[in-house]
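ARCHIVE CARD
SHELF: 3
SLOT: left
DATA:
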Amino acid sequence: MAEVLSCGDGACLTHSSAAALWGFGREWARGVEVATRSASPRRRPGVRVHRRPALGPAAVTVHDRIPVTTAVQTIIDLSVRFGRQTLEGMISDATRLRLLTPPSLRAALADHAGEPGVAILCGILDRRTFRLTRSQLERIFLPLAAEVGLPVPLTKQMVNGFEVDFYWPELRLVVESDGLNYHRTPAEQAQDRVRDQAHTAAGMTNLRFTDEQVRYEPSYVRRRLAETARTLGFQVSDAPFRAR
């Protein structure tokens, strides 16, 4: 608060200092970062001052009695500093703290069009929140399994009381895909564990991929399928993987 007040009227915490105050970026705080709309901001040792005349009232709030950029604005500001993994961690932490949700963040970005970092966040959120339809999932996943050399699996089968995405009865192998892996509810996560435990208790092997992995990381999915198939005694060729 002292550093904010020292920078004049309208100043607020921003960037890493704002993230630290909100609780989703304490490890990235280096010194104190303050935003000001003043044309000639005051300078203080140890304070990094950002001149931001375009910072609107909607982008600033008060938390713990300290003026600070909103959680949404803070993540936008930091998106040009950090890579995807760090940003995903910040979004997850902000979600855990109930400051936002990935859908609410994605919707809020429409009001920040053109700001640096918005396009980066849109790309991350769009990859993480989409959900493959069953037909899309089969169209993308089945060729991956075929490239490994696995036979055509059964689909939409009831196994141990649950409908599964893909089932190889001869291998006792079940593969399922999850969407919305960013923010699955506790109830959904608990149901996933019950499903997995039922398959394990029945002596089956269960693989679970995210929709994002199936769509964007086919090499990873092929590799895991091949490794699992070998473990189960099924002969697969590694030639396609050496070539990729």
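SLOT: right
DATA:
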Amino acid sequence: MPVKKLMALLGLVALLAGCTARQGEAPAPDLTIEEHAVTERGADQPTHFEFNDRIPASVKEKRAPWRKLPERRWDNLPAANAALSPFGYELVTVPEAGAELIKGRDLVVGHLSEIGPVAVRGDGKDFAFVAYSSSRGSILVRANGIQPWEEGDHYFQPPVFAGNDLIEVKIDGQSSERFILLQNGKEVYRGVAGPVITDLPLRRLATWNSTWVVEIKGDVILGGKSQKQALGYDELFEWRLVDGKPFYFFRKDGKVGISYGGKDQGARYDEVVHYMCCEPAMFNPAGNEQMVWFYARKGEMWHYVEAGLFR
């Protein structure tokens, strides 16, 4: 096999394996995983609010400031404004009127009550975010203008940039079980998200290393490739970035493990709560750029677990 083709093949294998190390980049450090035993499942289960009362206050308080989730409220604007500033835009709060998007002294759109994360094109020439305006409804805001945005048609997932390409997902026709992925408005992928039982089956739209990532229930599609199939897992779920590197849970041979930066972190569980709805949904894994917290069972014992880069 020619050297160039061999190198290209090895690069694809590294991408599918979740390797995050670019040339000259240090490999991801191992996560610190702290497990706190809560109770045996015969006594209680993480299905109701009161289950959290079983977790000692000292455990809850230890990293309370770390467990900060991204918000869509108009009063959480620093990150959004940092992304918008190079374009000359700013989000400002207005008493009793939510927030306004301005450019210089000109009002672009007002009465904003929710603002999603701001995605920026790779070359810095465009941005995109979803917001809700009481006067205009849900809208997609970009550098070149504003357009209506029906969140339900997009599985409530805002668009993202993969390099210089705007990526969005849409329900395929009238069936929410199937989805279409659009790149700069053109269809590039069709997939099956799965049946709608208690929640939408398409869980996440993201990017990593300029490649689009879609999580459906039980699998992650990376640039058009099923990671469950590529990596030989029975299930792969709760994909996210921690410190810019992929984190996810996988199920294989009846046990649930954790992968971070392409490396098995060694932990094994019989069950990790995920994809729950309604009241039990509060026990689904949650995370941010620093850590992930979740509820897991080992044998008969339920644990509250925090996994992160605890410097």
